[in-house]
Write a structure and sequence with these properties.
Family: Belongs to the ABC transporter superfamily.
GO molecular function: ATP binding; ATP hydrolysis activity
Order of helices and strands: EEEHEHEHHHEHEHEEHEHEEHEH
Distance between the termini: 44 Å
Structural class: alpha/beta
CATH superfamily of the largest domain: P-loop containing nucleotide triphosphate hydrolases
Keywords: ATP-binding, Nucleotide-binding, Transport
Shape: elongated
Pfam families: ABC_tran (PF00005)
Strand order of the largest sheet: 5-6-7-3-8-9
Bound molecules: adenosine-5'-triphosphate
Protein name: ATP-binding cassette domain-containing protein
Number of domains: 2
Radius of gyration: 24 Å
Oligomer: single chain
Number of strands: 13
Number of helices: 11
Strand content: 25-35%
Largest sheet: 6 strands, mixed
CATH architecture of the largest domain: 3-Layer(aba) Sandwich
């Protein structure tokens, strides 16, 4: 488990992380989301002790990262996919890492296979595609067989097959009871991989929710119905908690009743329908709405900086 308590990080007069509190639970994949500059990388750096909090605390399996005797076996992370010497092979890179952390050689072969790198393991990492580089970064994160895996933008730049691979890998790790956290600035992509979401903007917590709840909330915008008898349908559906608006002579948008119930009532009373569509907001739109103020703040800051 990762436990973040009132975590704050200031760089001069800029507050990158602002009193953030959340936990990342084992047995599920948690998506850590926020627009660019929201403070995701800064938070992740503090989790693994690469940055010191200005105030607040963060523990990894109950202890500060640097208090663990073998941190790589507690939490494996991918923060900089390209932190590999370009002249080294994937095999040499992983072997060196394993050696300096007392990890047995056979684990190198295991993670190479797990990451699908067997055929390129002895090629120079400098010649790797972005996707191969990401796979190597993930292989390194898994080297210590850690209980916690934390990946910064692991699907950034991956093709659909690569995204599917990451998804299968991470849900497999979560199913084994591990704690899995991944950051992204793309909601739709994250919703496919994660079970839980922690959303931040301007360094502050905006949402801590399940993906299901977020999707449900994003989808609740009524049902569009088309009928040749709009007045009869309107009378049938009217009642407490139901709001009906007309969009054209034959189209209604019904809020407060699901499409199944509308269809059943119309059929029962012989009202012909030729469209019955639940209105959905795309996840990306819902995410943008949630983080809008945070983004506006960012662009205002950028505008102020430009003006100065
Ligand atoms: N070393 C630093 N010195 C000064 N400011 C910093 C430093 N690191 C980050 N920041 C600022 O802190 C804020 C948060 O940055 P951070 O990189 O954590 O955001 P992010 O959510 O990871 O963004 P992205 O999705 O673009 O990676 C930004 O405004 C950034 O400019």
């Amino acid at each position: 488990m990762i436990d973040v308590r009132r975590l704050t990080k200031r760089y001069g007069d800029r507050t990158a992380v602002d009193g953030l509190t959340f936990t990342v639970q084992p047995g599920q994949v948690t998506g850590f989301l926020g627009p660019n500059g929201a403070g995701k990388s800064t938070t992740m750096r503090m989790i693994i002790g690469l940055d010191r909090p200005t105030s607040g605390s963060v523990t990894v399996n109950g202890k500060r990262y640097d208090r663990h005797r073998a941190p790589l076996t507690e939490i494996g992370s991918l923060l900089e996919a390209r932190s590999v010497h370009p002249g080294r092979s994937a095999f040499a890179h992983l072997t060196a890492l394993a050696h300096t952390h007392g990890i047995p050689r056979r684990r190198v072969d295991e993670v190479i296979e797990l990451a699908g790198l067997t055929s390129v393991a002895h090629k120079r990492a400098g010649a790797f595609s972005l996707g191969m580089g990401q796979r190597l970064g993930i292989a390194a994160a898994l080297l210590g067989d850690p209980q916690i895996v934390m990946l910064d933008e692991p699907v950034n730049g991956l093709d659909p097959e690569g995204v599917l691979w990451v998804r299968t890998l991470l849900s497999g790790l979560a199913a084994e009871g591990r704690t899995v956290m991944l950051s992204s600035h793309l909601m739709s992509e994250t919703a496919l991989i994660a079970d839980h979401l922690v959303v931040i903007g301007r360094g502050r917590l905006l949402a801590d929710t399940t993906v299901d709840a977020f999707v449900q909330e994003a989808g609740g915008r009524g049902v569009r119905v088309a009928t040749t008898e709009p007045e009869r349908l309107r009378a049938l559906l009217s009642g407490p908690g139901v709001a009906i608006t007309s969009t054209t002579a034959e189209h209604l948008v019904v809020d407060g009743m699901d499409s199944r119930r509308i269809g059943a009532l119309a059929a029962q009373h012989g009202v012909p329908l030729y469209e019955l569509t639940p209105q959905t907001v795309s996840l990306e739109e819902a995410f943008m709405e949630l983080t809008r103020d945070a983004v506006e703040y960012q662009s205002t800051t950028a505008a102020t900086l430009r003006a100065a």
